[in-house]
Every structure is written in C-alpha cells, then in structure tokens.
Known about the structure:
By secondary structure, the chain is an alpha/beta fold. Helices cover about 40% and strands about 15% of the residues. α1 crosses α8, α4 crosses α5 (about 130-145) and α6 runs parallel beside α7.
Amino acid sequence: MTKPLIAAAHGTRSAAGLATMHRLIDLVRESRPGVEVDLCFLDVLEPSLRHRLQSAAGPAVVVPVLLSAGYHVADDIPSVVSAHSRVTVARHLGPHRLITDALTDRLDEACASDADVVALVGSPSRHPLAGADLAEASADLARALGRPVRVLALDDALPDALSALAESAGRVAVAAYLLGEGVFHDTLRAHGQLERASGRLDLAGSGQLGIIERVRVKFWRLGRPCEGLHRHDRKGQGVCRPDRSRALHVRP
C-alpha cells in the first residue's frame, strides 16, 4: 500500500499564497488518486507538522514544499520527524528543471527577453545549503536562457543591489524564486517599485511563481521516501539528510 503523503509548507497569511498551496495539493491528489495527501505548515499556520505527525496512524512520507534547503529542511523537519520511526522525509522541491521552465515562462510573460541583465531573487536564508540551492537554480536558469544570471538575496540590501545593477548593466529582469504570494513577494514588489517606475526593471512572477502544474510532477516523484537523501543522521535515527552529491539533479 502506498504511504500517505504529508506536504509540509512554510505557511503564510497571504490568501493568494495559501490558495496556491491548496491548489498544489489538489493537483497532487488528482495525480495520485487513492493516496492520502495532507497539508500542514512549518510556521504561521496550523496544523503544524508536529501536530499532524502526532495523529499519524502508521508510515508516512513528509514532502517539504520548499524551493530551497534552509533551516526548515536541514533542522526543523528532521527534529520533528526523529520521534517517528515509521515516517520518512523526501527531498524539497528545488532546484529542478521544471521550476526553471516556469521561471523562463514568467520572464517571457513579463516581456523581459530584451532586458540587459537577469537577476534571480530568492529568500534570504543564511543557511549554506540555501545559498547553494539558489546558486544552482541560477546556473540552471542561465543555461536555459543562454545568458548570465545574477543571484540576489531578498534582504535589506536588495534595493541598493537592484539600483547598482541597473546603473551598471541597464534594464534588469527579475525572476522571483518564490513559491507563491506572501511577505517575501510583497517585499520584492515594494523594493522593485522605484526601478520599475524608472523603466529599468521588469519583475517576472509578480503573482505566484506559477509552477504548480509542473511541481505536481516533482511532488509525485518525491512521494518515494529519501530520494537523493541519507536515511539516518549521525546518531542513527530515522531522519533524512540532504545528500548534495545526488540531490541537485533529480529528474522526473
């Protein structure tokens, strides 16, 4: 029997962002009829992953609905799952060529093909795995576009970084490496207003990233536990850890 899937999303107070998460889960359910697929959250909203696992009656697979491996993937999820020996953890969603395809679509929709430089902006996690994932996503996007892509973090330095990039290179096309609407996307939109008003910036993906039709394929594959992951942590507990040698190039 196929194990139930538990989608662990970050959580957001944005109605549009929450609608994106629910739409993704609905698509996964349509793709895998007969498989139980539940949604829980790592922050902001309930039910939490801890609460959901407390009610788990048997084996299950936790799928982190996150684009990059930050502290939630590396620390929080393994910590919660370690108390449940029959629960395994799949890999998070990115980087992946399906997400890269969605980013190129968003850039096309924003008419950014004639921009002088492309920047990929992602969430500002300080975890080294998050930075490595964002760099890999940028490299994948650069290969798809056939041109260099700059990586920028969505932090307080972003407005100055965008201005400096526009001053030195010209028109900037910004691809938002964000799964859906929420605080980070609102911040990115606000940071880009001045440059957009000056005609020096095109913001691709001003709504949701628009990957749910593609991500459901990746999510479907991630229902198989520990693809590209180590099964145990250093203490021998049943926790999956990212294996950087394998996990960056999962293909559907």
